[in-house]
Amino acid sequence: MTEKAKTPAHIAIILDGNGRWAKQRGLTRIKGHTRGADTVTEITQHCAKRKVKQLTFYTFSQENWKRPKLEIRFLMRLITKYLIKERKNIEENNIRLTAIGRIDGLPENVRKELAVSIEESKNNTGMVLCLALNYGGRSEIVDAAKKIAREVECGNMELEDVTEESFNDYLYMPNMPDPDLLIRTGGEIRISNFLLWEVSYTELWFTRTCWPDFSTKELDEAIKDYGSRERRFGGVIRG
Questions:
Q1: Which of 64, 89, 124, 193 is catalytic?
Q2: pLDDT of residue 4
Q3: How confident is the model at residue 1 (pLDDT cuts 50, 70, 90)?
């Protein structure tokens, strides 16, 4: 099975390089995160205009809890401010907000504002904006396996019923299509525990540009490169 790549329906992005961007300019890491939040807004609006169906941001990983407490507190405040500030843009662009991860592990104020934004945008019919918060790909798989084990234990599911398709039903966002294109900024070439189940056949695109400097022009370059690729899905090119 082969398929000529077109404009990606689902783009996932690992937002990397805020700290390095700030360090290069003699600024604090907090300044880098602040500028990075502005880039999130710019890229989100651009994707909505390009009719991308879903955009998923790796916003805060489980590993990020290892960072200095002061930085974590700032990031939680920044996420809260972002959720409040972006409600107008989300509504104007007909975006539906969702989130994946162990949401219960986030501070109460973040959970509260996240719930409000999700509720207010639930009837929007445009692009889906998904924030991965307190997220880990391995944890998602483990959590799904536990849910299935409980179903089998309670007699609601037979072991033989566990397939790739049924397993997908127990992930954080069961109806989420696999990403077509995964972009990572900041120069690192790895996926860092992001969407491990979902990116099996995702096209990858890496750039040295740090996230605060990632532009709509560079996003268009990534999409153009994606469009030139032949997606084989394990098959071969015929002809």
A1: 64
A2: 47
A3: very low
Q: Which of 196, 211, 209 is nearest to 62 (CA)?
A: 196
What domain range is 200 assigned to?
A: 3-135+178-231
Pairing of strands 230-231, 3-4: antiparallel
CATH number, position 10? 3.40.1180.10
Q: Which helix (H) or strand (E) holds 54?
A: strand 54-61
What is the spatial distance between Cα 164 and Cα 169, in angstroms, rounded to a whole number? 9
- Taking Cα atoms as reference points, which of 58, 61, 120 lies closest to residue 95? 120
Evaluate whether residue 158 is within a structural domain. no
pTM: 0.93
Kindly report the backbone phi and psi dihedral angles of residue 118, in degrees, each rounded to the nearest multiple of 5, phi listed first.
-65, -45
Find where tokens 């994707």 sit: 47
Structure tokens at 199: 């990116």
Total structural domains in the chain? 1
Catalytic residue at 64?
A: yes
